[in-house]
Amino acid sequence: MRAYQHTLASLVEGRPVSWLRQVHGHAVASVPPGVIHSGTHADAQVTQSTHAALAVFTADCAPVLLCSVGARVPVLGVAHVGWKGLLAGVLDATVAAMQTHSRHPIEAYLGPCIGAGCYEFTGPQLNELTHQLGPQILTVSKAGTRTLDLRAALSLGLARHGVPLDVSDAVCTACDGEHYSSHRARAESFRQALLAWVQPS
Ligand SMILES: [Zn+2]
After folding, report:
1. CA of 160 relative to ligand 1 center, distance in Å
2. CA 170 – ligand 1 centroid, Å
3. Which end of the chain, C or N, has fewer beta carbons within 10 A?
């Protein structure tokens, strides 16, 4: 990560990049002014600071950007969410952390992640997710097996907090090998980065 820090910083107008050691859990790192994380064990981070750029890295898991709407100083959140994080409650924890800063409405945006057609996901974990979020998260993969619709699960999980999720940029990482890394489809080890920061007004 250290070797990439300079390149990333140039992309984000000189801001230091706050990054996490992602562990598929529910921990949310707070990023107060003047602070960045460099490998803190967490899967989401939130800030109101204009100082740092927040990063999460994903391949087939979902990069989710959350932002408060209408606050004088926006609250920003980024989260790395796969099925483990969903079950662990990382989205709930991220929204709760943002709401400690502001009670303004929150909007969320989903980046590239594995599409339901390409996702082979069965077993007790699928039953547990269905129990938590409802049968709307179930669909059928291209292979004809019952599977998890990650986008639907994320949408439902956020809707419980009144947070709408925009999925218009959520292309399938398994289908689009030209632009995106997919661990499941191609066993690739590079990652997409979601980078987000608060622009001073
Ligand atoms: Zn696909």
Report:
1. 27
2. 11
3. C
